[in-house]
Amino acid sequence: MLANCSRLLLRRSAFEVPKTDRLALLQRVVITHNVLLNSAHTAQALLTTGYSSSARRSYADAATPAKPKAHTGRAKARTTKPTGKSSTTVAKKATGTAKKPAAKKKASPAKKKTTTISATSAKAKPKKKAARKPRAKKSKSDKQKNLIAKGKERDVIAALKGTALVGEFPKTLPQNPYGVLSQELSKETHALAAKAASAKFKSMTPQELEHYNHIANQNRATNEAAYRKVVEAHTPEQVRLANNARRLLKRKYKIRHSVQPIKDERQVKRASNSYNIFFKERVDSGDLKHMTITDMGKLVSSEWNGLTKEEKDKYIKQQALDLSRYKFEVKTVYGRDAKPKEAPKATS
Known about the structure:
Layout: H1 2-16, H2 22-38, H3 40-49, H4 59-63, H5 85-97, H6 119-122, H7 142-163, H8 177-188, H9 193-202, H10 206-232, H11 236-251, H12 274-284, H13 293-305, H14 309-334
């Protein structure tokens, strides 16, 4: 096929190039031969298009042929029309003798997935700073835990003492003759006051003892008046809560100083159950004198279990009356209703 194309191009060039310019014809033959060796598609393009008569190439240009353009599959349009009958007849003969090669359909390349990048995303986005990891909490030592626990305990004790009215009562004066004598001697001689008071108290005359007893009785009356004044400055409900706080300080936190129950005649007496009423009756009878609490409890418990139902009904009725009394006093004194847990448990 390449040989046929070469012959056709030589014949066509012989008609188009003047006879006197044989050098140009030779150059075209060399160029054509090189092009045909590179690509069959380029030979087809040269066949349909032809060379212009005015084109002249030097021998130096023919030595380095230009790279052929990529074939698109479509024939290029003619730029110059051939002149004369000879050129048309040769073209007709060329078309008659040589068939055009069928254009091979190029396999359409697989479409590549293209991702469109917007102008804003094309810009390099600033990298987000990595979030700092929270520091691992150091485990506290046993010493630190003990200090924290003690601090919390101190806060609780301080709050309970405030509720218990600790520190609001005045300091009591000595209420016995020996205490009065010790206080008097401590003002005179700070050192060895206890020994001096003990020696003097043993050698005291009746007149001196009467003098110190009189001072002690006056101090007792003064203490009671001061104590009553502090108690009456608070409501019965506040005194009740203060006693609860004092019991908690003594039982749970082992505090013994200044936590004795506050004496207040306004406080409501708790209701008793039937067994306690029976126990009090037996103690008041005087039959259990000179007995220990343990022995008394064992004896009264056995007697209670030996009672019949009709005999126990007497004490059960007294329990109901005492409970109604308690509810009434709670309402009038504390200004609230009695709680169910405050009622005494029934015994059988």
